[in-house]
């Protein structure tokens, strides 16, 4: 598999950005494989994802960022440089609901998600056996309101020891502290079981059923300090009707949760997500 470099760029929009970036790659022998850009005309911001083959690129990997820096400065770019050879280490947090966990365990084992699933953390012991059948370490960190911060310190210590790059909250029922969120900014993905911003908070299926909605949904988003308010990565919906019981809605909703979370994780692991102004640009 050829190794590629990926640049994710955002900057004030102006003429010549595309030419400058593609010129930098071409003049140094890179073969561009994917290039996509978007402009937020309201905010006059330019966004770009460009990926190129490194096999004939003249600049050594460790010098690419330094060589690109003058262009970044000239255009006041925020940029991230990634390499396809870097397989991200992943941790999953769960509580007792297991449908998203089952789905993710299978997808990682099947190689559908290009990540290294290093561990699962839970505030309950219920899912230990399931996780360990996949050969993945399971860590039980019980939490109460009183012990939450102290337990989080231990979790963060483990996450750093294992060099975790991405955390997935697969129906994890604990609110993460500001300190935790801050240490993993835009590297914690949550699945919320509603079509946000509808039904923020607890029991969205029950509230949707009581409201008599005709559409239910699921939303994956980056976790921020404010509950369920982080940058939305992916959403999907399904129709429901008066014929659906609450159990029918939960069943239909859980199918959505699994696919919406998997899409978000895949795009993150493939470096296809740019975050700005609490929103995302998805280069898929
Ligand atoms: N800082 C954040 N933490 C979490 C977020 C978030 O957006 N920001 N999303 C939640 C997931 N979630 C809804 O999708 C959610 C989970 C838990 C709760 C809640 O009230 N939990 C109670 C404890 C409940 C229990 O012990 O069973 C609490 O933490 O006090 C609301 C919404 C994950 N974390």
UniProtKB/TrEMBL annotation:
Pfam families: ACT, Formyl_trans_N. Its EC number is 3.5.1.10. CDD domains: ACT_F4HF-DF, FMT_core_Formyl-FH4-Hydrolase_C. GO terms for molecular function: formyltetrahydrofolate deformylase activity. Belongs to the PurU family. Catalyzes the hydrolysis of 10-formyltetrahydrofolate (formyl-FH4) to formate and tetrahydrofolate (FH4). This is Formyltetrahydrofolate deformylase. It comes from Phorcysia thermohydrogeniphila. The lineage of its organism: Bacteria, Pseudomonadati, Aquificota, Aquificia, Desulfurobacteriales.
């Amino acid at each position: 598999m050829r190794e590629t470099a990926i640049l994710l760029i955002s900057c004030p929009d102006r003429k010549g950005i595309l030419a400058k970036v593609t010129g930098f790659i071409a003049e140094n022998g890179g073969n561009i494989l994917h290039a996509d850009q978007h402009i937020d005309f309201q905010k006059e911001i330019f966004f770009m994802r460009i990926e190129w083959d490194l096999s004939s690129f003249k600049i050594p990997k460790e010098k690419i960022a330094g060589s690109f820096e003058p262009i970044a400065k000239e255009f006041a770019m925020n940029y991230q440089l990634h390499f396809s050879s870097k397989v991200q280490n992943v941790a999953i947090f769960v509580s007792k609901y297991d449908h998203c966990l089952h789905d993710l365990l299978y997808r990682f084992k099947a190689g559908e998600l290009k990540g290294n699933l290093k561990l699962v953390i839970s505030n309950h012991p219920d899912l230990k056996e399931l996780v360990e059948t996949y050969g993945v370490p399971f860590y039980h960190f019980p939490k109460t309101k009183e012990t939450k911060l102290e337990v989080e310190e231990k979790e963060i210590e483990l996450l750093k020891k294992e060099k975790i790059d991405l955390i997935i909250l697969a129906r994890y029922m604990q609110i993460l502290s500001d300190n935790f969120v801050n240490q993993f900014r835009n590297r914690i993905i949550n699945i919320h079981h509603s079509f946000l911003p509808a039904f923020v908070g607890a029991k969205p299926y029950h509230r949707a059923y009581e409201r008599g909605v005709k559409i239910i949904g699921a939303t994956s988003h980056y976790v921020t300090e404010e509950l369920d308010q982080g940058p939305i990565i992916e959403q999907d919906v399904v129709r429901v009707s008066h014929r659906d019981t609450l159990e029918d809605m939960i069943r239909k909703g859980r199918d959505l949760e699994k696919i919406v979370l998997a899409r978000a994780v895949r795009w993150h692991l493939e470096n296809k997500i740019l975050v700005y102004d609490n929103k995302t640009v998805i280069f898929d």
